[in-house]
Amino acid sequence: MKIATYNVNSLRKRLPVVLGWLEQQQPDVLCLQETKVQDTEFPALALASTGYHTIFRGMKSYNGVAMLSRVIPDEICFGLDDGQDPDEARLVRAVINGITIINTYIPNGFKLDSPKYVYKLEWYKRLRVYFDKHLSPDRPVVWCGDMNVAPEPVDVHSPEKHLQHVCFHELARNAYKETVAWGFVDVFRKLYPDRQQFTFWDYLRPNSLDANKGWRIDHILATASLAERCTKVEVDIEPRRAAGSSDHTFLWAEFAL
DNA sequence: ATGGCACGCATGGCGTGA
């Protein structure tokens, strides 16, 4: 089973990229973040032509998640359900081929002194409670998406310069790790303990890709028994090289079921 | 030290991203 994740940075802008990648890579599941499209404007028809089933929840301008699968997904849920803002455009959960898949677009946090950063840290805590409520670490579960955290120094270029960055700050990394510690394994890091491989390169530095000044902030995690069955993890850098690219690229993992 | 790019939109500037 091949599961992929991609921060698309506007699905409507990136529709040809997504359609082409599905055709070329034939994943069983593709999780998208930052679709930036409300549900009434979602390009459902174009995606239906691929044969993939699509579930999605978006809003105007910002955020938005979608999950594409070759088979019909079950037990579809959006957002957190703890009575606070559910943030439905940031989380979708479904069961596909007997595996629960959670696709998240974690809040960025903006700046360390911003209320948005508090919200980000809190979001990770809420997510761990959500895992407790709905899932078991003993079951096969995949959690993937744009986590907006580079977990270790190797996961960002010039880490010493980014200690005060909301995606590398100690509290953000700890919040991420606390939630991972619920029972998830980062399958990229499991297969490649030392490899530096980014998934995001900033638009603001036109040479960031050639200079390989990026971040590994998109992740695929699995519960332990499923992680044991992970046979392959790759970052496909080619879509990031193409003109009119998202600032992220595709990450995918294969599991022997 | 600062600005740089991309996207969406009550679209000519701003909020947001990371």
Describe this structure in words.
The chain has one domain: Deoxyribonuclease I, Chain A (4-Layer Sandwich), CATH 3.60.10.10. It is built from 7 helices and 14 strands. The protein has helices at 11-25, 44-48, 115-134, 170-180, 187-191, 224-227, 238-241; strands spanning 2-7, 29-33, 53-57, 65-69, 74-78, 91-96, 99-105, 141-146, 184-186, 200-201, 214-215, 218-223, 230-236, 250-255. The strands form 3 sheets. Strands 3-4-2-1-14-13 form a 6-stranded mixed beta sheet. Strands 5-6-7-8-12-9 form a 6-stranded mixed beta sheet. Strand 7, helix 3 (115-134) and strand 8 form a beta-alpha-beta unit. Helix 3 packs parallel to helix 4 (170-180). The structure holds one DNA strand of 18 nucleotides.
